[in-house]
Design brief:
The chain is of the alpha/beta class and 287 residues long. β2 and β3 form a beta hairpin. α2 packs across α3. The chain is elongated and about 60 Å long. The relative contact order is 0.17.
């Protein structure tokens, strides 16, 4: 009886060990160290957070944060001069890159959501944005309810698309949603009159408007569509990598370096809001 009992315990322990092994996350730091290279997904069209700048080099608020993260990862793996492969893509493409292992992390304007957490992990928050609408200046559209019978463009596969459809349905607003795949296309469509409004993250909409042919002919509605907590997407279940990423972000937030980065890319929008300042503090991890 006792002998059989111990046999059961041994089998159970073996099964538990097998289960634990099966749940072990990826060793992204080891992969980076061996290759002396880090693959980073980013958005090429989300100025001022993440975009392709002069000579097609990644630039922006999120990219500057990401460069600090990459430097910390290099120190952690003992390779201070990591080669960086920047991989441009849409939000759907970027998250797939991280989930499949093609990208080691992602730096852009990506919103952390529960559904996305099923496939990737996220760093601590890096920015807080809100969904909004870009329209022609002087157009008879001042709030959500004015969108009845209008055509509204939105980037396909984004949290804004999901939220826009939910809000229109719940508030019984009969607008036509036009999914698009290129961010700049939305502004072009507003200018041509083929759509009446363009829904997206407010900071990104401001960036697109600034780059347009005639910025003064575009306006941003005051009403907000959604809450967008941005973070860096990471491989799922890789706590060692997440620690180094959050270590780097904490250093940037607590050293005050975030003030310089914010001023460079977002300073024209005014000082950081009290909510954003609180986010920096609450997303800093003490030693």
């Amino acid at each position: 009886m006792v002998k059989n009992f111990f046999a059961v315990l041994i089998v159970a322990a073996g099964l538990a060990a097998t289960g634990a092994s099966a749940q072990t996350g990826p060793n992204t730091l080891g992969k980076i160290k061996a290759a002396k290279t880090i693959n980073v997904a980013y958005s090429a069209d989300s100025l001022p957070l993440s975009f392709a700048g002069p000579n097609n080099e990644p630039a922006g608020y999120s990219i500057d944060l990401c460069k600090r993260v990459i430097a910390q990862i290099g120190r952690a793996v003992g390779e201070p001069n990591l080669k960086v492969n920047w991989l441009a893509g849409s939000v759907t493409e970027r998250l797939q890159m991280v989930a499949s292992g093609r990208a080691d992390l992602e730096c852009a304007n990506t919103t952390q959501t529960q559904s996305r957490l099923a496939n990737v992990d996220f760093s601590n928050l890096i920015f807080i944005d809100a969904g909004g609408f870009l329209v022609k200046a002087g157009a008879p559209i001042n709030q959500l309810t004015d969108l009845g019978g209008k055509r509204v463009a939105v980037l396909k596969g984004t949290t804004t698309e999901t939220r826009l459809n939910e809000v229109l349905r719940n508030r019984l607003i009969n607008a036509v949603v036009v999914p698009i795949t290129d961010a700049a296309e939305g502004v072009t469509m507003i200018e041509s009159g083929s759509i009446d409004a363009y829904a997206g993250d407010k900071v990104k909409l401001v960036g697109l408007a600034v780059q347009s042919k005639e910025p003064a002919k575009l306006a941003l509605l005051a009403e907000e569509l959604s809450f967008e907590p941005n973070a860096l997407a990471l491989p799922r279940n890789d706590s060692a990598l997440r620690l180094e990423v959050n270590r780097a972000l904490t250093q940037v937030y607590l050293s005050g370096e975030i003030e310089t980065i914010y001023a460079q890319w977002l300073g024209k929008l005014g000082r950081p809001s009290n909510l954003l300042v609180a986010m920096y503090l609450l997303n800093s991890i003490p030693e």
